[in-house]
Write a structure and sequence with these properties.
Layout: E1 9-10, E2 15-20, E3 26-32, H1 42-53, E4 69-71, E5 75-76, E6 79-80, E7 85-90, H2 112-119, H3 135-153, E8 156-164, E9 167-168, H4 190-203, E10 209-216, H5 230-239, E11 244-249, H6 260-263, E12 267-268, E13 271-272, E14 280-281, E15 284-285, E16 290-296, E17 306-309, E18 315-318, H7 333-364, H8 366-371
Antiparallel strand pairs: 1-2, 2-3, 3-7, 4-7, 5-6, 8-9, 8-10, 10-16, 11-16, 12-13, 14-15, 17-18
Helix pairs in contact: 1-3, 3-7, 5-7
Length: about 375
């Protein structure tokens, strides 16, 4: 296996290579390693892209892209062939002229400065490669992974917004997270969130949020010691999402205040008695729900004046014009779900390839079935 240096490919047996920029002709990806025979159509992928796009209806995005996916290869007579699957999403709402005023300045909190420092050149149109626009390709790839996982193992991946700013939103019903465009998991809080977001929209500022992503139906045994631990790869996948500043698995940082007698998940013949570990022990899945929390920073694009410098080092004052997103993290729910699906499918294939016979025997054992 060759060394992929440029950081555009994720995964080993199930790998995703994305391409494209915010205001280029298109974004897309090449998905390699999907087993043959999976029934796959445009509608399977489009459904997930539409979930990512749904927040346009609540005015959380200034951009109105149709996000229509095209399958260019890897499918024959409605099924995957085992060859690379190329997916393309064309950019229709391109307004590069909107960004000409920032072509020589660095926006605070964005990747403008770091990209310029690394490459000596940057695409200033909406952030170029650093834009969240690229994540539409990840959602498309994740749609393939989550369908394969569900049909093969019954794995179900769900996400929700569990906190916006200081507003904590306990889970009431996972079905609620599919009924509104805020992915809240409590339909009774929709109006509260709408009022909060409108406050930040009117004030010209923004706010961060916390997401919870849960995968049920994860088989025990997925994950590789030592450097490819399942939780380590999940953390890498989540940290690779734009604006993510923190990742927790299970109780995460709350473990700092816990005792060993509390945090260690006890077991009985009927299964685990708690899930503080979040479904991973020793870097390998336990069969319990895999629970991941993600912290997303407030978008740095605000209407308030912000100090910065231009490419010559001269001081400037910037403020975002026009429509802006008061809480960009809400739109990350389908993206985080997709990346978790990609990680799980990659590790499921790796476990099946190395430990296929063990995988079969472990699922026949009553004890392992109980724990799962």
């Amino acid at each position: 296996m060759g060394v992929e240096m440029s950081g555009n490919t994720f995964g080993k047996l199930f790998s995703v290579t994305s391409f494209g920029e915010s205001h280029g002709p298109a974004v897309g990806c090449v998905v390699d390693g999907c087993p043959p025979g999976l029934a796959l159509s445009v509608s399977d992928i489009q459904a997930e892209l539409d979930r990512r796009r749904s927040l346009i209806e609540t005015s959380l995005s200034y951009r109105n892209e149709p996000d229509q996916v095209e399958i260019l290869s890897g499918i024959f007579q409605g099924r995957t062939t085992g060859t690379p699957i190329a997916l393309l999403i064309r950019n229709q709402d391109r307004r590069a002229s909107d960004f000409t005023r920032i072509d020589r300045v660095f926006r605070p909190g964005h990747g403008d400065y770091s990209y310029q420092a690394k490459y000596g050149i940057r695409d200033h149109r909406g952030g170029g490669r650093a834009s969240a626009r690229e994540t539409v390709a990840r959602v498309a790839a994740g749609a393939i992974a989550r369908k394969w996982l569900n049909e093969t193992y019954g794995t179900v991946i769900r996400g929700r917004v569990s906190q916006i700013g200081e507003m904590v939103i306990p889970l009431r019903d996972w079905e609620d997270a599919t009924r509104d465009n805020f992915f809240l998991g409590d339909r009774n809080r929709v109006d509260d969130v709408a009022i909060l977001l409108d406050h930040f929209r009117q004030s010209g500022d923004s706010i961060g949020c916390r997401l919870e992503i849960v995968a049920d139906g994860v088989l025990p045994g997925w994950g590789e010691p030592v450097f490819d631990r399942l939780d380590a790869d999940v953390a890498k996948a989540m940290m690779g999402i734009n604006a993510v500043r923190g990742v927790e698995v299970g109780d995460g940082f709350a473990a700092v205040g816990q005792r060993g007698s509390e945090h260690g998940d006890e077991m009985s013949p009927e299964g685990f008695l708690s899930n503080h570990a979040g479904g991973v022990l020793g870097g390998i899945s336990t069969g319990q729900p895999l629970v991941v929390s993600v912290a997303v920073k407030p978008t740095p694009s605000v209407h308030l004046p912000r100090r910065s410098v231009d490419v010559a080092g001269n001081p400037v004052v910037l403020r975002t014009r026009g429509k802006r997103d008061p809480c960009v993290g809400i739109r990350a729910v389908p993206i985080a779900e997709a990346m978790l699906a990609v990680v799980l499918m990659d590790h499921a294939l790796r476990d099946r390839g190395q430990n296929g016979s063990v995988q079969e025997s472990r699922m026949k054992a009553p004890f392992f079935r109980a724990l799962a």
